[in-house]
Amino acid sequence: MSAAAGGEPARVEPDQPAESARAEPDQPAQPDQPAEPAGPGEILLGIGAAAASAGVSERALRYYQQMGLLTPSGCTPGGLRRYSEQDLARVGRIRQLQTLLGLTLDEIAGVLRTEDRMAQIKHAYHHGSPTDAERRELLSESLALQESLRATVEAKRVAIEGFLADLDQRIKRTAELLAEAAVPVGHLGGTAG
After folding, report:
1. b/e map 54-63, b = 16+ CB within 10 Å
2. What are residue 104's phi and psi, to 5 degrees?
3. Is the pLDDT confidence value at 27 over 50?
4. What kind of fold does domain 30-101 have according to CATH?
5. What predicted TM-score, i.e. pTM, was given to this entire model?
6. Average pLDDT over residues 107-136
7. Average pLDDT of span 90-112
8. Where are the domains of the chain?
9. For residue 188, what is the enclosing H or E element?
10. What percentage of the chain reaches a pLDDT higher than 90?
11. pLDDT, mean of residues 117-136
């Protein structure tokens, strides 16, 4: 990694999607059939097979793409989407962030952008040739990104704790009402006269 003009560190550009899968001209690709390998030994799946493998609907995959959460690794000449194992892992990450943390898709987009940038930083740090100053800048940026992610998770934790505290109060009050309802009315004030 070399410094750009003005002493600024060179920017690490996002990875480009893999080359599109190509079908034979006389054999149109089927959406639910595996496509040709994208790279050595890698098979790209059509949207139906990818959705089934990821445990989501085809509509969800299209929506994730529309929201910028997922970019299929390939596309046939006819425009059919093709998904790699890495794409399916990303779908798994999206689902994990939805179910584990209860993040919205907009929040997930932010988390994924942050994680993607952190992966770029890690690659530049370990596989580039950064100067000591550039390494410090990469580490500073990585730290800021990680702190931002932590703040997102912390906000969800605080919200969940508030929800649980409210739920605990309602459970306590309902249990008290149930206990009072179990005692006959004449016995509440002591002796009946």
Report:
1. bebebebbee
2. -75, 165
3. no
4. Multidrug-efflux Transporter Regulator; Chain: A; Domain 2 (1.10.1660)
5. 0.66
6. 94
7. 93
8. 30-101, 154-182
9. none
10. 67
11. 95
